[in-house]
Amino acid sequence: MHQALKRPLSALDGSSSGDATSTKRPTLTSTHSSNGVADIPLATDAEEDEPAYKGLEAFRKEAIYRRLLEARRDLARAEQRAASLTQSWEHSQRIAQDWQLLWTLLVEDLTKFQPSAEEWGSEREVLLPPTDHNQLAPVQVRCDAVHSVLKRIAARDPRNGIEAASISSRADALAAESAQLRVQLSSALLEGKRLSTQLSELQLSLQRAEKRADRLASLSVRRVERPNWEEEERRRQAAEDAQARAEADRVAAEAQHHQDNQVVPNGLPGVISQHELDAEREAHSAEVSEALAEAMMRLDEADNLRTELTSTRETAEELRAELERVPDERVLASVLYRDLHSHFTTASEEAERLGKSLATVEAENLTLREQLLDQSTSSNDAASAQIDELQTLLKGNEADVARLRGQRDDLQAELTERRQRDGVKSSQHEEMKELLNAREARIQTLRSEVRRVHMIIAARAGDTEAFQKAKAREPSDEDDVALIEELQGRLKAAEQTSADLRRQLEARSSSTTEEEMLVRASALQGELDALRSLLDGAGDGDVVKRKLEEQERATTSIRLELDASSEATKALCDEVDRLSAAFADTEKLAAKNVHDVAKLEDKMLRLTTEKSKADNKYFAAMRAKDALDNERRTALRTAERQTKALERYAEAEKVLSAQLVAAEKEAAVRKRAIEDQTTKLIEADREARLLRVREQDALKAKQHAEARLAALFPQQAEDARSAARELEQRQRLERQLERAQREKAEALAAAAAAAAAATGTNRGRRSSTADTGMQVDYLNSLLRCSACNDRYRNTILVKCLHTFCEECVNARVQTRQRKCPHCAAAFATSDVQPLYLQ
Questions:
Q1: What is the pTM of this model?
Q2: What domain range is 614 assigned to?
Q3: Radius of gyration of the chain (CA)
Q4: What is the C-alpha to C-alpha distance for residues 324 and 92, in angstroms, rounded to an integer?
Q5: Separation of alpha carbons 464 and 455, rounded Å
Q6: DSSP 3-state assignment of 132?
Q7: C-alpha distances in angstroms, 691 versus 484, 655, 698, 723, 728?
Q8: Considering the domain boundaries, does residue 743 fall inside one?
Q9: Residue 124 domain-assigned (yes or no)
Q10: Is the pLDDT of residue 41 over 50?
């Protein structure tokens, strides 16, 4: 039976598809067709028309392309910012290395003045280059250590220090310059903030302008926003052409006017003579000669100035050399040095006092920071606890709302079911009323037929009394008890009536007149003649009496049958009206039943269609479930592979960490080697200085020997040999010094390379990996559904052009909450379209 119902349903669909598909929306396909899932129709309402917007596909593709252009521009900006940050980081690293190198050189210079470890005190651990970068002392502490070492050096031997007055003036100048630089730094920071704000605003404006330019360049957007844009473009092009022609006409008119102005009075164009040309040429030659003479004069002056400048520079170099060769005794004995020394001492004491106050302030600042940290921690804990409570309450409210919504849906379903039952009951009640009316009419008809049959039976039997009773009884809708009571009442009334008639007959028989007797006699005579005619052949009185009785009975029966037929005719006439009304009601009821049967058949067909659709959806859902299971298994396998890759990366990271630790240890060893080489270089430098002093002494001795050469001929050979030995020793020490300097440079380069390889590569790789991951996460967030933030966008709402995933849209369609999650605009089932990202 189910198959028999399916065949006409499919035939009906096939016959109607030829007319319906021409004007109705095409069937939408599912976006999971690539996973093996069958197509699922999303819109089956035959009454919904196709949307009027024809360029939807082009508009959607151009919108996606504009979004991709914007993402590409953002990616380029992010890469540019990453490159600038990388350059800034490298520049900072180079500055830090240079600063560390300068600090090392400063410590080396201090070591030269204070070589013993007992005189260093506690400043040695602070000033010397640390082996561990994590234990690097603050810059302020190291500066304080430098100040204390310098004070100790100055207090130990005032003759080896620098003049106090110059140091004080230099310190004041540096303090003033530092204050000025701080003011400039604050103003530069404010300006930088303002410029960064302006830059961000300009970047936002640029992004808006780029979006606007993309929208203006889009053909579909122009068609939507300006339907008559082609006509406007033609008008603008025509206006531009007209303006260009007008400009060309104006230029031609100006050229013609200029040509007219060059015409001489006789109407011919002006011609310049050869004499005028020669005169002009001579004038130009004279001007060129004067310019050459002036140029030569200025060249001579420049040569003189260059000579004077050279001599001035030579004089300045000589004065600078004399200034550099000022003896230390004159410097120490100068008033400026004494003033500078006093100022330096005062500044040192003031620096110590400021250092103590700074330490106090830093201690207070540290205490306040700890208090602020405790307070922020407590406030954050309280806020987090309150947030947790509010989230718990919110979850409870959401659960209550979900429960109430479920109860509301259950009550609505129950109310709908009860309404359907009440409707069915009311229809059944109406049918019962109509059937009862038909029953009553049928009962009346049957009672009338029973009455006719009783009269016919009484007439055939000749029972006048029964005939009269049946004739007097009217058909009613009362029951048998009421009929019996009515018959008893009629019997009593008939008895009373017979008694009254008997009394009247007795009264009339006593008061009959002669005329009445004559009339009765004539009547009796006529009856007698009739009887005589009937009894002509009868001889016996009993026979005659019997015939008379039979004749009377037949007459009575015929008369009763005639009355019964007349009464039956009347009853049939009355029954015809009732039967016609009952037939009309029955016909209406039958038509209604036929209509209900047709509706039920349509409902059965619709339910069969819905069942087939539900079966298709079920099978499609099962196929989708199988596809999702396959995807889940694939994702699990991918996750396992990624987990293994992460484990490999973790192992590689451990290996790199071990390599980094080894590199740091090697860097520490090399730093110690550099320190040793630095110590050796300092010793070699000291020996070189001693050798230089010895060389100077030797030169002085040589000069003295040459002065005494004439008088000391016997000592000449020995002095030459000693000079040769000294020269050879000097050359050997110079070679050792150069070799030590090369070793020091190589050690410094190796240490810098190791430190850069240990820190820079990891940080650069991590920063670039983090920036790339952030960019990928940002692009993924653009492609994910904004309602669930889990699946990708694959469905678009045509009415508002917002995109979501198919599951979220189908959930809203099934729960009849057909509003856009983004703008809350209502949408129909036909507004749901698939979205294809290309």
A1: 0.25
A2: 608-783
A3: 65
A4: 36
A5: 9
A6: coil
A7: 166, 51, 10, 13, 12
A8: yes
A9: no
A10: no
